[in-house]
Design goal:
about 950 residues; alpha/beta; 29 helices; about 15% strand
C-alpha cells in the first residue's frame, strides 16, 4: 500500500521548520494486518516468534521494533482473560500487553486492567528481592536476603511444627486469584488443615444459597443465548468475569434479549438495561419471591423440570403429610406458601413499583428455559440472610426449567476444568477450628475475617502464617484488629507475605517475598465465563522468550526482574526442604513422574496435566508439538464448546455394576455412596445433593436447626428500614460495589488505573443531601458500630433515595516508614491509645515523586480516597458465615476538628460486636455428631472421620 501524500500545508510547514520533516528517509509502510479501517485483527500466529512494528513512542520517527509475542493470562481479576506480551528481542523487556485471540473466554478483548499490567511490571516501587524484617514488626525496616536463606528458615520452622504435631499452627491464607488446586495439594502433602481464604468476605452468601438448591455453589449463565437476563448488581461492567460476561450480554441484547439489573445505584450496567430495579438493599429476595409467585399463579412454570428434577415428594411428605403426594398438590402448596409475596409486598419492601415487578416476572416466565441470571457479591454479601437472595434467584431458574439449558444458567463446575495431578496426597488428619469453628457448621467457607478475634480468645495460634496476594488489613472489615494480631508474636509467630506488590498487610510481615505478576508466573486458569469449558496457561513470558531463543532457565526468578519468583516453584523447593530425608512423607509428593526418585520440575508438573486434558493431546499431535509446547504457543485450549444438561448424563454399565436402588427413593447407591438417580426410567448422575435433584425443600436446614428456612424464603436484613432510626440520621451504607477499573488491593501500583479512578466519595441522592444541606464536595462524618470515617459527598440522582454508597476499592495508605504504591496511596499517621482506640489521619494525599518512570513526576491527582473498610465491624451471617458488608451508619456533619480521610476505630468495641453476632449462631454438632454436613464441600477436605465430634464436643 502506498503512503498517503502530504498536503500542501504540511509540505510548507515542513520547509518552514514549523513541524518535523515527516517525509525525510521515510520507508514504505509495514504490511498491514487488517484491511484499512479495521482494527480487530491480531498479528498472525506464524509471526509471533518474530513480529515487527513501529514504536509508537518514537513518533514522528519511524523506528521499528522486533518482538517475540508470548501468550499469558491477566492477573487482575478472576476472569483470567488472555494476554499477549510483546517481548523486545533486543532489550529482552516486556513492552506492552494486548489481548490473546486464541483465548475462548475473552476472545482477544480486554478491559482497562489487562493492558495496565505493564504498569505493574515496570512499577518503580515494586518489590524485586526477598526481604526480611529488621527491628519490630511494622517499623518498616527491611534487609535483602537470599532465597536459600528464606527457604531454609521457613522450612525448618514448618518441619519442627510437623514433628511436634502442631500441624494446625501452619496456615496459608489465599486472596485471589487461585491456581486450580496447586496450593491445596501442597498443604495436604504437608498434612496440615491450613487452607484459609477470603471467600467469607466475598461470595459465601451466594454460594450457600445456590448450594442448598443443587449442590453446586456458583452459577454459570449462558448470557449469549438468553432471551432474558437478570443481574443482581452490576455484573455487566464491574462484577465477576465481567469482561467475558459483558461481551456475551451485549451479544444477547443485539439478538433481542432483555436485560434487567437489580441495584440501588444507577450503575453503568443499570444504565444500559431495559429494566432498572432500584431495590432497597436486602429486599431483593422479597422481589424475587414475588416474581416466583407470579410465575406459579399464571402457569408460566416448566412442569417437566419441576416434576422430574425437584424433590417435591419430600416437601409434601415433610410439610403436608395429610395431602396427596401428586404434582398438582405441589403447585398448590407452593402457591399457598408464597401467597404473602405479592407485588404490593415487594413494592413495600423494595420500593420497586408493583407493576414493574409483574412485568419483569412475566418476561422471565415467557423466556422459559432461556433465562440467564447471575449474583455473586452484591446483595448476597451485604445482608443478614443474604444467601436467601441467590436461593430465591435460583428458584426462578428452577421454575423456568432453565437449569443447565441453552440460554439458561448452569452450575459453574460444568464449565470449569479440574486438573489431574501427578500425585494426590490423602486428606489431612486434622480439623482446624480457627478456620472452621463449631459455631458455623454450614459456613461457605473458612471464617477467615474472624481470625483475629479467635486468636484474641486463645482458640489457637499461628506459628507459620502465609498470606498470598492477600491484604486483610485493608480489604477486610475491622483491619485494626488484624494489625493487633499481626503485631503480637503470641498470636502470629512468623508472618510471610507472598505478594507481587506492597500492601498494608505486608507492612506487618517478617518476610516479604516478591511473587510474579501475570507475565512472571505459572498458573492454570479455568473459569465459567460462558457455556463452554476452557483451560488457559498463565506463563512467565520472559522465561518462554528465553526458551525460544535457546537459553536454558532452571528457575523463573533467573529471568524475571530482580529476583521475582513464583509460588509454584517456591512451594516445590520449600516442600523438598521441609522433608530432607523423606521421613515426614512430604517429599514423596514432589517426585518427578518421569524421572524416578528425582524432584519434579515445573515443566513436568504442567506437562503431566496437559497430557490428561481432554482433546489437548490430539490437538498438539496435529501440530507436532508436546502438550506443554502447544499451551506455551497458544496460551489456551477449548475443551468443550458447549456444556449443557450434564445432570442427565447416563451412568455407564461399569458404574452401575454392584449398585442398588434405595428402597422408597429413586437414588442409586454403590458402596454406601449415592452415585445417581432414576429419572424417567433412566439411571443418570443428577445433581450432588442428598436427593440428587434440585432441593426446593432442604432437610439439611431442618437437621441443622434451621427448620424455618427449609424452603426459599426472605429474611429481613440487619439494615432493614425497621432497624434504622432516620430521626437520628441512620442510613444503610452500601460499600460492596467496585469501580470497573480497579482490582481489590492490587491496582495500587498501576498508574493508568490510578489516574482514571482515585477517589471514593459518598453517593447521596439530592433529597437526602438537601435534608443535611450537603453539596458535592462537602465533608460528612459516617459513624459505624465501632468508629467513624470522614469522606466527601457526591450528590447524584444515580443513587436510590434513603440509601448511600461508597466504593470499596480505594483509600489505600502507607505510613512515612512504608514503601510502595505511591501512585495511589495517601500518607497517613496512626496513633493507638493502648486501650483499643486507633486514629488514622491523612498527612498528605497522592503527589508526584522522583523515580526511573518519568510519569511519576507528572501525577496531577491528589486524592487517594478514604479507607472505609477498616471502620466496619464484623457481621458474620449465622448460617452462611458471610460477612454482611452493608453498614448501619449515622450521618453527621463534620466536627470542628474533622479532616478528610480521618478514621477512628475502637477494637475493644469491635470484639464486643463480634460476640453479639456470635450469639446468633446454632453450633455443631449436627446429626450423628457431625461438625458439618458431609455433602457440603470444603476447599481442603480432611479425612471423613474428622467430620465427627467426639462425645466431649471436641
Amino acid at each position: 500500500m502506498t503512503n498517503k501524500q502530504p498536503s500542501f500545508i504540511e509540505r510548507m510547514a515542513e520547509k518552514l521548520g514549523l513541524i518535523p520533516d515527516l517525509q525525510q528517509n521515510r520507508e514504505p509502510d509495514l504490511e498491514r494486518i487488517a484491511p484499512e479501517g479495521e482494527l480487530t485483527q491480531f498479528p498472525p500466529m506464524e509471526q509471533w516468534d518474530d513480529w515487527t512494528e513501529y514504536e509508537a513512542t518514537e513518533h514522528p520517527k519511524r523506528v521499528k521494533r522486533n518482538y517475540a509475542i508470548v501468550p499469558t493470562t491477566c492477573f487482575n481479576c478472576e476472569s483470567a482473560c488472555g494476554l499477549t506480551a510483546y517481548v523486545d528481542k533486543d532489550s529482552h523487556e516486556i513492552r506492552k500487553f494486548e489481548g490473546n485471540p486464541y483465548h475462548p473466554g475473552s476472545r482477544g478483548r480486554n478491559c482497562a486492567k489487562g493492558p495496565a499490567t505493564i504498569n505493574q511490571i515496570t512499577d518503580p516501587d515494586r518489590i524485586l528481592y526477598p526481604l526480611k524484617r529488621v527491628g519490630e514488626r511494622g517499623e518498616g525496616q527491611w534487609e535483602r536476603v537470599s532465597w536459600d536463606e528464606v527457604l531454609d528458615d521457613i522450612a525448618g520452622r514448618i518441619r519442627k511444627a510437623l514433628q511436634e504435631k502442631r500441624n494446625n499452627e501452619v496456615a496459608y491464607h489465599v486472596g485471589r486469584p487461585g491456581h486450580e488446586g496447586y496450593a491445596n495439594r501442597v498443604l495436604q502433602a504437608w498434612g496440615v488443615d491450613g487452607h484459609n481464604s477470603h471467600t467469607n468476605i466475598c461470595s459465601s452468601g451466594a454460594r450457600f444459597g445456590y448450594n442448598l438448591w443443587y449442590g453446586y455453589d456458583r452459577p454459570s449463565p449462558d448470557h449469549a443465548n438468553a432471551k432474558f437476563i437478570l443481574l443482581i448488581s452490576a455484573h455487566l461492567e464491574s462484577g465477576h468475569y465481567f469482561n467475558p460476561h459483558a461481551q456475551r450480554i451485549i451479544e444477547a441484547k443485539m439478538k433481542g434479549a432483555k436485560l434487567a439489573t437489580m441495584d440501588p445505584r444507577l450503575s453503568n450496567t443499570a444504565s444500559m438495561s431495559d429494566y432498572w430495579l432500584p431495590t432497597y438493599p436486602g429486599s431483593e429476595a422479597a422481589v424475587l419471591l414475588a416474581m416466583a409467585k407470579i410465575i406459579l399463579d399464571e402457569g408460566l412454570y416448566n412442569r417437566p423440570f419441576l416434576e422430574n428434577w425437584t424433590n417435591w415428594q419430600a416437601y409434601l411428605q415433610a410439610r403436608h403429610p395429610e395431602s396427596p403426594v401428586v404434582f398438582e398438590t405441589y403447585i398448590e402448596k407452593m402457591q399457598e406458601e408464597y401467597a404473602e409475596y405479592t407485588p404490593a409486598f415487594a413494592e413495600k419492601e423494595s420500593g420497586v413499583p408493583a407493576a414493574r415487578v409483574e412485568e419483569v416476572a412475566r418476561a422471565i416466565g415467557e423466556a422459559g428455559s432461556q433465562f440467564a441470571s447471575h449474583n455473586w457479591r452484591s446483595a448476597a454479601s451485604g445482608n443478614l440472610g443474604g444467601w436467601c437472595v441467590s436461593r430465591a434467584l435460583h428458584f426462578l431458574t428452577v421454575l423456568t426449567g432453565s437449569v443447565g439449558t441453552k440460554g439458561g444458567t448452569s452450575p459453574n463446575k460444568w464449565n470449569k476444568f479440574s486438573p489431574q495431578f501427578f500425585s494426590t496426597p490423602p486428606g489431612q488428619k486434622f480439623w482446624n477450628e480457627l478456620h472452621f469453628p463449631n459455631e458455623y457448621p454450614l459456613s461457605f467457607f473458612e471464617m477467615s475475617f474472624l481470625l483475629p478475634h479467635f486468636l484474641k480468645e486463645g482458640r489457637g495460634k499461628m506459628d507459620v502464617y502465609f498470606t498470598r496476594v492477600f491484604n486483610p488489613v485493608w480489604t477486610y472489615p475491622d483491619g485494626f484488629s488484624w494489625m493487633e494480631a499481626l503485631m503480637d508474636k503470641n498470636m502470629v509467630n512468623m508472618h510471610i507475605a507472598l505478594t507481587p506488590t506492597w500492601n498494608e498487610t505486608a507492612f506487618f510481615a517478617d518476610y516479604v517475598l516478591p511473587m510474579g505478576h501475570s507475565a512472571e508466573r505459572h498458573d492454570l486458569n479455568s473459569y465459567a465465563t460462558h457455556s463452554g469449558m476452557w483451560i488457559a496457561f498463565r506463563q512467565p513470558v520472559l522465561r518462554e522468550a528465553a526458551r525460544r531463543a535457546g537459553k536454558n532457565v532452571e528457575f523463573t526468578y533467573e529471568v524475571n526482574p530482580g529476583e521475582v519468583w513464583e509460588e509454584d516453584e517456591f512451594w516445590i523447593e520449600l516442600s523438598w526442604r521441609i522433608d530432607p530425608d523423606g521421613s515426614l512423607g512430604v517429599r514423596e509428593h514432589f517426585l518427578s513422574p518421569y524421572r524416578k526418585g528425582e524432584k519434579i520440575t515445573i515443566d513436568e508438573y504442567y506437562q503431566y496435566i496437559f497430557e490428561r486434558t481432554k482433546g489437548l493431546p490430539e490437538a498438539a499431535k496435529k501440530e507436532g508439538l508436546t502438550e506443554l509446547d502447544y499451551m506455551r504457543k497458544y496460551g489456551a485450549f477449548e475443551i468443550e464448546k458447549r456444556s449443557y444438561s450434564k445432570h442427565i448424563t447416563e451412568l455407564t454399565p461399569e458404574q452401575l455394576e454392584g449398585s442398588v436402588r434405595e428402597e422408597g427413593t429413586d437414588l442409586i447407591k454403590k458402596n454406601d455412596k449415592t452415585i445417581g438417580v432414576y429419572v424417567d426410567g433412566k439411571a443418570v448422575v443428577g445433581f450432588p445433593t442428598p436427593s440428587r435433584k434440585n432441593e426446593f425443600y432442604s432437610q439439611t436446614m431442618v437437621d441443622w436447626g434451621w427448620p424455618e428456612y427449609a424452603t426459599p424464603t426472605y429474611i429481613k436484613s440487619h439494615i432493614h428500614p425497621d432497624t434504622l432510626d432516620k430521626e437520628k440520621g441512620e442510613y444503610c451504607l452500601v460499600p460492596t460495589f467496585r469501580l470497573p477499573t480497579l482490582i481489590h488491593s492490587r491496582s495500587g501500583n498501576a498508574k493508568w488505573l490510578a489516574e482514571i479512578s482515585n477517589r471514593n466519595p459518598i453517593w447521596m441522592h439530592p433529597e437526602d443531601a438537601s435534608r443535611w444541606g450537603f453539596q458535592t464536595g462537602d465533608l460528612v462524618r459516617l459513624n459505624t458500630d465501632i468508629g467513624y470515617f470522614v469522606d466527601k459527598v457526591w450528590v447524584t440522582q444515580a443513587m436510590k433515595p434513603g440509601v448511600i454508597a461508597c466504593s470499596h476499592h480505594l483509600g489505600r495508605w502507607r505510613r512515612r516508614q512504608d514503601a510502595g504504591n505511591r501512585w495511589a496511596t495517601n500518607t497517613v499517621n496512626i496513633n493507638h491509645d493502648g486501650k483499643g482506640g486507633w486514629k488514622m489521619s491523612t498527612l498528605s494525599g497522592v503527589k508526584p515523586f522522583d523515580s526511573k518512570d518519568a510519569d511519576s513526576k507528572r501525577i496531577f491527582w491528589t486524592d487517594g480516597g478514604v479507607h472505609q473498610n477498616i471502620t466496619h465491624a464484623v457481621h458474620p451471617d449465622p448460617i452462611s458465615g458471610m460477612h454482611c458488608w452493608h453498614q448501619r451508619v449515622r450521618i453527621e456533619r463534620p466536627h470542628a476538628d474533622d479532616n478528610y480521610g480521618d478514621i477512628f476505630v475502637d477494637t475493644a468495641k469491635a470484639h464486643e460486636n463480634y460476640k453479639e453476632w456470635l450469639k446468633m449462631t446454632r453450633p455443631a454438632p449436627g446429626p450423628g455428631g457431625l461438625r458439618r454436613p458431609l455433602w457440603f464441600n470444603r476447599p481442603l477436605r480432611p479425612q471423613e472421620d474428622l467430620y465427627y465430634l467426639d462425645e466431649s464436643g471436641e
